[in-house]
Amino acid sequence: MAENKTVKFTIMRQDSENSAAYEEEFEIPYRPNMNVISALMEIRKNPVNVKGQATTPITWDMNCLEEVCGACSMVINGKPRQSCSALVDQLTQPIRLEPMRTFPVVRDLQVDRSRMFDSLKKVKAWIPIDGTYDLGPGPRMPEKKRQWAYELSKCMTCGVCLEACPNVNSKTNFMGPAVFNQVRLFNAHPTGEMNKSERLNAFMEDGGMQGCGNSQNCVQACPKGIPITTSIAAVNRDATMQAFRNFFGSDHD
Amino acid sequence: MAGNREFFNRRLHSLLGVIPIGVFLVQHLVVNHFITGGPESFNKAADFMGNLPFQIVLETVVIYLPILFHAIYGLYIAFTANSNVNKYGTYRNWMYILQRISGVITLIFIAWHVWQTRVAAAFGAEVSYDMMHDILSSPFMFVFYLVGVLSTIFHFANGLWSFLVSWGITVSPRSQVISTYVTIGVFIVLAFIAVQTLIAFV
After folding, report:
1. Of A71, A86, A111, which residue constitutes the final position of a domain?
2. Fewer CB within 10 Å, N side or C side of chain A?
3. Within a domain: residue A233?
């Protein structure tokens, strides 16, 4: 009978930032079209593990529930991805949920992704348009270029590419794949281009772009299908030219 | 400007792997191939290479210093990686980890190889067919050399691929696929030359 169908979960839990991680198993009744988040909500209603012991509800981050905010990213059956778009019907059970440990774990499946936002601040990943007076309209962007840039702009800073990257770890301070893409996006914008050298120079500083080892996991892992490795090579090319300009001197930039 | 020594070191590491180390490797493999023309022909070539003018300067600038930097910085790169081929079994991720493993094997091999030939020569041994024949006649040393040489060639060929990406020469996915095939070709050609040479010494 369909009513007896259940879904099994193995969840890596951690009570606080510095406490030890432990596994806890759960079994909840199956409903059609469940995703990982609706299952976590089901557990939260009545937090009892598979042994019948009462436990604390699981903590995780979520926001948009339609795979555009990136907040609900976690490692599901070994792969980092968004839990909102992870459908229970498509996953092998028991479904294993772990936090993205590349980032500091706050509690259970919730991680602190601030390092990504700090990196974006360092490389000035924005378009400066504020002034003390009206600067007027900026240069127009050709439609073809806009469509291309739109693909790069899909990055939601979810952190999946950092989790998949073998070089983002506690031994280096490499900013991670996503930042290459953001630098390329803002350098490609007709107004953003005016600060291209600033962005490149900030990205070329220690702990910036040089940790990349070309394993190309990022482009495989990206839930938005962003051509990250193309962005990496493109920014590498720009950085090469910038380094030459810095070293030999240039009458502009 | 805050420090960008890392950027400089990393790019220098990438460049040195191709120029001069890669160029030297190809030259070394090609000159050794003279052995297929017989011991006499190898001795003539080894004699020519061993008696180049400014030999010690050439060796230091073209070989010792670049390899030393490439090896030390390469070890740092290799040991700051957290490989995850178990999760991402893609071709590139395997190349990534093999590049690091082959780098370490190559370093061990080159250290031994320099000790056994160049350092020995500095202490009076003669670099000749006899020297290499004696070394490679031992089955253990033959396998050691075979693994070491193939690992070196792999590291060079695959390193050539990532050099092209790191400097932004191959940007598009298609160009990176083409350079994958070209560097596989480089590996096959050099491996063929090297294996033929090793066999000819025995």
Report:
1. A111
2. N
3. yes
Which residues in chain B are contacts of A213 at CB distance < 8 A?
Answer: 77, 81, 96, 99-100, 162
Q: Count of A–B CB contacts within 8 Å? A: 112
CB contact under 8 A, B84 and A172: no
CATH of the domain at A234: 1.10.1060.10
Range of the domain at A229: 114-248
pLDDT in tens, B26-76: 999 999 999 999 999 999 999 999 999 999 999 999 999 999 999 999 999
Asked if residue A62 and residue A25 are part of one domain, the reply reads: yes
Pair (A98, A118) in one structural domain: no
Whether residue A253 lies inside any domain: the answer is: no
CATH number at residue A40: 3.10.20.30
Which residues in B lie closer than 8 A to residue A207 (C-beta atoms)?
A: 6
**Residues of chain B positioned with their CB less than 8 A from the CB of A235:** 168
Q: How many residues does chain B have?
A: 202
Report pLDDT digits (tens) over A193-234: 999 999 999 999 998 999 999 999 999 999 999 999 999 999
| Closest approach of A210 to chain B, Cα-based (Å) | 6
A221 and A157 share one domain: yes
Full-model pTM: 0.94
Kindly state whether residue A227 falls inside one of the protein's structural domains: yes
Residues in B 150-179 with any Cβ partner in A closer than 8 A: 161-162, 165-173, 176
Contact (CB<8Å) A236/B166: yes
Number of domain units in chain A: 2
CA dist., res. A99 & res. A97, Å (int): 7
The pLDDT value recorded for residue B2 is: 56
Instruction: Please name the residues between 136 and 165 in chain A that touch chain B, using a CB distance below 8 Å.
Output: 164
Domains identified in chain B and CATH numbers = 5-201 (1.20.1300.10)
